[in-house]
Write the structure tokens for this entry.
Amino acid sequence: MQSNPVGGDAGHGANGQAPAHVLVVDDDPTVAEVVAGYLDRAGHDVARAADGPSALARFARRRPDLVVLDLMLPGMDGFEVCRRMREQGGPVPVIMLTARGDEEDRVLGLETGADDYVTKPFSPRELVLRVGSVLRRARLPVPVPGTSPAAGVLRTAALSLDPAARRATREGAELALTLREFDLLAFFLRHPGRAFSREELMSEVWGWDFGDLSTVTVHVRRLRAKIEHDPARPRLIQTVWGVGYRLAEPEDMAAGGSAGAGAGRPPRDTRPAPGAEGVPDTPAGTSASSPDTPPRSPDTPPGSRRSARP
């Protein structure tokens, strides 16, 4: 592990948020102590583990509300720990810590099921704020069965989403969505037909004004894999070249055969005329603002990213 992996920002006391049980998994005792200290001062109950097996044992004994998980662990890396936690306990929010600069590792962490990652060195105050943001979304109230108002349910084509019950279905089958995937789908369903940039989605869905935009790209890809009949040719969540993403309007879904509809004409080509700039899914190693640079696939992570600090 690298030295001084945590920044030196001053911390804050409890912010009034209900305490959460947070599991911090890091083999560097300095990092674990600093992160645990900041989370403790924010009012959370913190448990610590220094490796994958001990983290899984703690997870099995008491399921945490959130896990702060280092990627570079001895013996069993954070990817495997995250996979096994998902198998044991379902969608517990996970924020990964990594000292690696390789974008593929960061993307793999998100694809494994992490809700976000923070790259070392990092500000512990920023980490506490991100933990709080994830917990607030995870703690949306779940009503007593049968009391959820029908007006609150979002529907389009074969998709149905109940924000209060945190439940989404496709053609009657329940979808296993992570916290962020659920929030992203809910946001799209509330704004059908409107295109959003990744910056807007990060602000509106994640609640952050800065961060790595590949976080949005990966979550769109994961969501497509769960709601599209053919994720390689998405018809529900469309890429709008030069802008970002949009949820197809009902008439586009019906015409394009999405969500179980019969064969029909292909969806409208939403790409701008040649010369437009700002491709939303530029392949790694190229500029996200290069004109006329088509992506390898609708969701190849971008090579450029915004600063992790404001």
Q: What stands out?
A: Confidence is low (pLDDT under 50) at residues 8-15, 141-151, 254-310. The chain is about 35% helix and 15% strand. The two ends are 26 Å apart (CA to CA). The CA atoms of residues 79 and 177 lie 18 Å apart.
